[in-house]
Amino acid sequence: MQFKKPPVVEAWIEFGFALTQEDSPWDEDKAKALITTCFPGYSPESFLKYAEISVDARTGKADFSNVQELFDRIRAFSGDKDRCVQARRNVFVFNQLNRTQWFGYRAMADAATEAVGQYMQFRGFNELTHVSLHYRDVVSIPVPNDEKGIRLPNWFRVYPEVPQEALGTMSAFRFDIQLPELCKESDARLSIRSLPLTGQEETAFKFSIDWHVVSADNKIKEIEAARGWLDSAHDALRSSFEKAFTPACLQLFEPLEGD
Amino acid sequence: MFCPTMTANVVELASWNITESVSPYQDEQLSSMLISPVDGLHVGQTRYRFVRPANLNYLPKAKGWTCSLIGLTGYVGQGDTPEQAFDELKLSIHTDFQVLLRKRPFEMDETERCRWVRLTSIIDLLHYRTTTPIKTRELGQVSFRRISRPYRVKWISGENYRINPERVPAELMSCATGQWVEAEVVRHPVSHKILRIESVRKVSFRLPSAGELISLWENMPKAEVERGEWAW
């Protein structure tokens, strides 16, 4: 089933690599050089750092006297801001946003495979540890005229059931579940949560639905195998996606005729 | 088919997304997260309660630390330790708040107005105004009434204050009846009742008589007002 307005707002593919004996240092300058050398159409926009702090197990007090600031990752966006590459010491992530148009999985996977090749060459990696595929959907369900709210079973086939509360039903939630056997040698998880309403958007209830599929550790070692696994993970997610919503909800995504 | 999983696992899985509204990348300068919840700030006797709980963010730098309040841009404390950085942050917020608090809206330029809006979106201004005492400097005359020690102060506004020896400086109790004093008075922000007197200074003063007031009024120099067409 194809949709005119798919709910996907973002998808990303993550590649993890085994550190080698000759692993070169990873710092802010190195990360900038990666973007400049391998991704000239991208501009670095942010850097994530972290600090290592020791905490006294008995008192719980943190020792700030000897803090090490360490560089974690870089993030760079393409000129049109539709794509983003992120790099850590041994992790590379390719993000695709649905800002104006969604070009589909194939386009994203092709671009990600090409980009990760550049990263591997720059960092000198040749062996993967894992690969993962992630989708984030945002589903907007119109507020009914009777102002009685919505019933989740009318829209979702996977939803939390909570006891009726004395002061009314719960309107905000988040729940996470595993999806075993979604595809072979992988760990799949689904996260559904309500999004807060803002003043301008009170015509619809919004839900964020994250799909994550991660390959089992050290089962995939080469890029070609990773691409094959990504394709099968995508197909499995596609099938689960259509099962996760009721026909009424799927209509919101405007299915294309013939499907 | 389904089984629950730990939220923490999913959060880690989703950590590379770029559409999350609350992301460690939200502000490049705040990209290292050492977060501590806070519901207000104290500087000396001044307390700033926040409209809602907020988070302090500590960021280690090559030399020292910075501390900022998530959701309040433009205020960053720096110091050799996180505690010093926090103290600096408090002082920068405290100083700017006090400067802007004393300005009327028309006295603020555009940047000051923006800063004031940002500050008051975090700090509960109504709570501050209704709980922070007012300090004034006032002139008054001590009297003994029928007891042999200071009993009341009559301020030049006409208001009488019955002295509570527990809440006035000891020096006030050494005044003779009829002594004029200049006092630093702490009043309740809403009722304006005197909470305590912080300090007093004996001064030479007397109220002019009615005849002196008339004489002053009559001998006041006259000013010429320019005549002309008023155009509104």
Descriptive report:
The complex is a heterodimer of chains A (259) and B (232). Chain A has 259 residues and is α+β, with helices and mostly antiparallel strands. Chain A has a domain at 1-12 and 134-259. In chain A, helix 2 (105-123) packs antiparallel against helix 3 (223-244). Chain A has 4 helices and 9 strands. Chain A is 22% helix and 37% strand. In chain A, strand 8 and strand 9 (204-215) form a beta hairpin. A 9-stranded antiparallel β-sheet of chain A has the order 2-3-4-5-1-6-9-8-7. Chain B is an alpha+beta fold and 232 residues long. Chain B has 2 domains: 23-128, no CATH class; 134-206, Nucleic acid-binding proteins (OB fold (Dihydrolipoamide Acetyltransferase, E2P)). Chain B has helices at 7-13, 82-101, 110-122, 125-131, 210-218; strands at residues 3-4, 35-43, 46-60, 65-69, 76-79, 134-143, 152-155, 160-162, 180-187, 194-203. Chain B has a 5-stranded antiparallel β-sheet, with no helix packed on it. Mean pLDDT of chain B is 83; it is low at 21-33. Strand 7 of chain A pairs antiparallel with strand 1 (3-4) of chain B.
